[in-house]
Amino acid sequence: MTDQLNNGYDVVIIGGGAAGLNGALMLARSRRSVVVVDAGAPRNAPADGVHGLLARDGTSPTELLERGRAEVLGYGGQTLTGEVATATHHDTGFEVTLTDGRTTRARRLLVTTGLTDELPDIPGLRARWGRDVLHCPYCHGWEVRDQAIGVLSGGPMSVHQALLFRQLSDDVTFFAHTLPPSGEQAEQLAARGITVVDDEVTSLEGADDRLTGVRLRDGSLVQRDALVVSPRMVARAAFLAELGLKPVQHPSGMGEHIPADATGRTDVPGVWVAGNVTDPAAQVGAAAAAGAFAAAQINADLVMAETHDAVARHRT
């Protein structure tokens, strides 16, 4: 491993979630030297299971990643536990430096570091995150079907969330908190039978390791079994700054992302992105597919570069 780190790889993949591991699988099967560098802090770790993933629905996030790593290793790919501090240009591609000082080189980079959820600063909320404090109806909605669901207003997608969760339960309450709905939005909520509470939320209450209700500023408690929030999604990409890549606001208003074209290619030649770091709304299946697609583009790019060099040698 040390020799390979020193000598470099065809591709270094930064981030070992679904996008990164599926990208590594594609590249390893194409006989590329590839290493996945991962800090070991997956975004979906608090969740009981991954949903909406064909043939793997309900699989725990830990198990899914363990199986993915085993498949990558089975084809000769490598994995490395660590956090990337910087990525810089090198004469043959890129140099990647980890926070512990280790370095390696790559001809191409695939960044799949995902994002971090910045949650509302409400006492009791973070402790329930990924269990009965949720954000995605497709990831967790079935598990709270027919329950008393609250939706905390906190972003441009909050009303849309309420309408989506209304599909799953007849008992949905919208907490205006500090961002009340517009007139048109209030009409939509009323038309769908969604109760609007105007007071500010001050805390979440629970018992026996489950959510029991939402406490309001006036002291009253609204009983709820689950609460939907809109976290601000922050791309894990600070290490790309020296390459000239910085997160920008996503058009949806959901948070940050690293812009890329449809193949995952960024504005920096040789750097691709896939998964939530560029598409905040991507579920596990979509992220994995994007990682595989970007990896295929990277392999094709390397093939063309190698062919160009081979033609030059052939001519001489």
TrEMBL record:
InterPro entries: FAD/NAD-bd_sf, FAD/NAD-binding_dom, Ferredoxin-NADP_redctase_2
Catalyzed reactions: [thioredoxin]-dithiol + NADP(+) = [thioredoxin]-disulfide + NADPH + H(+)
Superkingdom per UniProt: Bacteria
Annotated keywords: Flavoprotein, Oxidoreductase
Domain FAD/NAD(P)-binding residue range list: 9-289
Gene3D superfamilies with a match to the protein in the record: FAD/NAD(P)-binding domain (3.50.50.60)
Protein name: NAD(P)/FAD-dependent oxidoreductase
Species in which this protein is naturally found: Haloechinothrix salitolerans
Organism placement in taxonomy: Bacteria, Bacillati, Actinomycetota, Actinomycetes, Pseudonocardiales
